[in-house]
Amino acid sequence: MYNTPYMKALRTRFKRDIVAEFLPPARESSADRVIIICGGMPSVPKHQALLDFFSKKGFWVFYPRYRGSWESNGSFLEISPEKDILDIISELPKGFISMLDKKRYRVNPQQIFLFGASFGGPAALLASRDPRVTKVVAFAPVVDWKAPSKAEPLDFVERYTRDAFGNAYRITSKNWHKLKGGVFYNPVAHASSIQGRKIFIIHAKNDLSVPWSSVARFAKKVKCEFLLLKDGGHLSASNFMNPKFYRRISSFLRGRI
Questions:
Q1: Phi, psi at 106, each rounded to 5°
Q2: DSSP 34-53
């Protein structure tokens, strides 16, 4: 057993900037399988239950804070967030230290799965182009920043993030407005280099935050697995634990869909 008796989430820092909570697998395994959660924003990064869930399934699981958000150093969106994920992947075999007990861990992944939700969807989808990434599962991912929802236009999200979260997201208007250009951190602009066979997207038709039609077009373009629900609203990372979804996700990870 790797974990502490209480399965308390551990913390580490990658590349001197990126703080991530993590848990080793709760049981010994013959292969190191890794899940990296690419969370949404703005949100409060409190996902002990999610870490615990995947740890008990036998995965190493990491929940990073993007550069420039929460405890991580840097300026938010100065660099595209999928690069944070790729930096973590590069650091795993080199080793990383738990801030709690100064214990050093090292992971040599046989499989790396990226789980993205909402704003984190582009991080997972864009990072999927790296050959080290095995598969990606995304709930309600933003796939085209030039097709924002009427309920949450980009200018509104910027104002709300500043007012409601303050310095939890250290962002300049210049960096935020890069999203409007349609290339920076925008999966649809890079669709030709994204391998659909590695991707499973789940979305709901009544999602008011991310238009389902843009996601459906993207899924068709990259030829990925796509599950469109009649309802469910804006699906978040917590849905990864929902049994009705996890059964499908688990089958996809094992190549049975």
A1: -140, 135
A2: EEEEE--SS-----HHHHHH
| Burial environment of residue 226 by CB neighbours within 10 A (0 to 12, 13 to 18, 19 or more) | middle
The answer to whether the beta carbons of residues 114 and 252 sit under 8 Å apart is no
Beta bridge partners of 142: none
User: Is beta strand 10-14 parallel, antiparallel or unpaired with respect to 96-97?
Assistant: unpaired
CA angle, residues 58, 142, 250, in degrees to nearest 5: 25
CA distance 136 to 67: 21
Q: Which residues contact 119 (CB under 8 A, 6 or more apart)?
A: 39, 40, 41, 142
Which residues, at least 6 apart from 234, have a Cβ–Cβ distance to it below 8 Å? 118, 140, 204, 207, 208, 209, 210
pLDDT in tens, 193-231: 999 999 999 999 999 999 999 999 999 999 999 999 999
pLDDT band at residue 256, thresholds of 50, 70 and 90? low
Tokens of residue 35, six digits: 């899940």
